[in-house]
Each structure stands twice: as structure tokens, then as C-alpha cells.
Specification:
- With 252 residues, the chain is of the alpha+beta class.
- Helix content is 39%, strand content 21%.
- It contains seven helices and six strands; from the N terminus they run E-H-H-E-E-E-E-E-H-H-H-H-H.
- The longest helix has 27 residues, at 133-159.
């Protein structure tokens, strides 16, 4: 399930979220959750857990009906803050098109790239029946906190898988674009980042799955639409997690 939220997406602030119109309920089972209410609830519960929110990035699409974003956090845990910070990805909609979903990830400190897990920690229709939003967010955050160790372990696994020759790396690169993980026009940039990285692009230097992963996530920054960047980051994470966890189905 892709997190692509459609064309026309743009970055928004929390104040701008409050100004968005709330659509009327379409029947007794349609309960739109205003975006600013979702973000406020999420923020309050994170702070209640004594975590700091380092950055918040949000975008909307489909006339403001669909929300997506990330929060980079800092708090107790085993994730090495010098290398990466835990990051929560989320999405929702007020038009019943998308469920509330949260996914655990990490922001790589050296390049600010997103490394998403392949698994969601929360999936819940936001517009069907009665919804206990605080309870739902609390459940998702519990799973997020429990999933951080898994992301850290996955990063170490990616580092431990060498690609060896350029031929092997090119084969992996072919799979990425052949499986539509990234749009084809990013192929030259990913190739440049991996095979001829700049001296200061130290995250792309390792000749391993980790280096190739970082080349992909750096290239994602070239996408203009926030929704496209978010979706591509999530798909890259799902793809590389499927390589180290072949039992997992790649997230679409």
C-alpha cells in the first residue's frame, strides 16, 4: 500500500491545518478527524511520554483532505542519536479515502534521509464508526516505541550485506527501478551517488546495501512534491527491508 497521496501536494504548518475546512459527515459511519486534532493529539501524547519532537514536516493533498508527514523524535532508547533519530511517519484523510496509518523509521543524522521500516505500527479507518482517537494514538505509539530497536537492527543488517563488485550493485539497482520503487528519472542520480559519491556524502561510501539505500534516499530529495518524497521514502524502506527480511511482503 503506497503512501502516495495524489497530485497537488504542498507543505503546511499547524496553523494552516487549523484553517482547513472540515467536510460534513457522509452518513452515520463517517466521522472525519480534523487534521489539526490528529496532530495535537499525537503531539500531546509524545510529549507526555517525555520525548522531544525535533522536527515536524507535514503536507496536504487533494484540496487539504489528505494529510501526511513525519516527526523526528529524541528520547530514551537504544538508537544511536549520533547516527540517527527515531522518526514517526503518519498519514490520514478527512474524505474517507485513507485510513490513519503510522510507520516507524529513522532520520539519518549525516544526511537527514528517512529510513522507514516496512511495517506499519498503526492501521485504522479514521472515518468508520466511533473512534477513540487518544486510545488509538496511544496504541500506535506503544508499537512505535517497541519498533525502534527493530529499525536500528535493520540498519546494522543493511551494513552487514556487502555488494562486492559493481556488477552486483548494478543488479540491485536494476531491481529497484524495475520494481517501480523509484521513478526512472532518478536512476542517473542514484547511480552517481552510489558509484561516484562526493567526499562529504559519507553515507553513500559503503559498498553495501546500506550505501545503496542511502544513495536512493538522497535521490528522493530531488522529487518536488512532498507527497512524492514521502511515498518514495516509504517504498525505499520497504524494498530494502524485504532484502534483509525476505519473509516480508514489500509494501506497495
Amino acid at each position: 500500500m503506497s503512501l502516495m497521496l495524489g497530485a497537488g501536494s504542498h507543505v503546511v504548518t499547524r496553523d494552516q491545518l487549523r484553517q482547513l475546512p472540515i467536510p460534513a459527515a457522509r452518513g452515520t459511519r463517517h466521522q472525519p478527524i480534523p487534521h489539526h486534532v490528529l496532530i495535537s493529539t499525537l503531539t500531546d501524547q509524545i510529549l507526555d511520554r517525555k520525548w522531544d519532537i525535533l522536527t515536524t514536516s507535514m503536507g496536504v493533498a487533494s484540496g487539504g483532505a489528505r494529510l501526511f508527514g513525519t516527526m523526528t523524535l529524541r528520547g530514551p532508547g537504544s538508537m544511536d542519536a549520533k547516527e540517527m533519530n527515531p522518526t514517526l511517519g503518519f498519514r490520514s484523510s478527512t474524505d474517507s479515502a485513507l485510513s490513519i496509518r503510522m510507520i516507524v523509521g529513522a532520520s539519518v543524522t549525516v544526511c537527514d534521509n528517512l529510513q522507514f521500516s516496512g511495517e506499519f505500527v498503526l492501521r485504522r479507518k479514521s472515518t468508520t464508526g466511533l473512534l477513540d482517537l487518544p486510545g488509538l494514538i496511544n496504541e500506535g505509539l506503544d508499537r512505535f516505541m517497541g519498533g525502534m530497536d527493530g529499525v536500528a537492527r535493520d540498519v546494522h543488517r543493511l551494513k552487514d550485506v556487502p555488494l562486492g563488485s559493481d556488477e552486483v550493485a548494478k543488479s540491485r539497482l536494476f531491481d529497484i527501478f524495475n520494481q517501480d520503487v523509484l521513478p526512472l528519472h532518478l536512476l542517473p542520480k542514484v547511480s552517481e551517488l552510489y558509484f561516484d559519491p562526493a567526499e562529504d556524502h559519507t553515507d553513500c561510501h559503503p559498498r553495501s546495501l546500506w550505501g545503496l539505500n542511502n544513495a536512493c534516499t538522497r535521490a528522493v530529495h530531488l522529487l518536488k512534491k512532498p507527497a512524492a518524497k514521502f511515498a518514495a521514502s516509504q517504498l525505499v524502506g520497504g524494498h530494502f527491508n524485504s532484502l534483509i527480511h525476505p519473509e516480508l511482503e514489500r509494501v506497495h
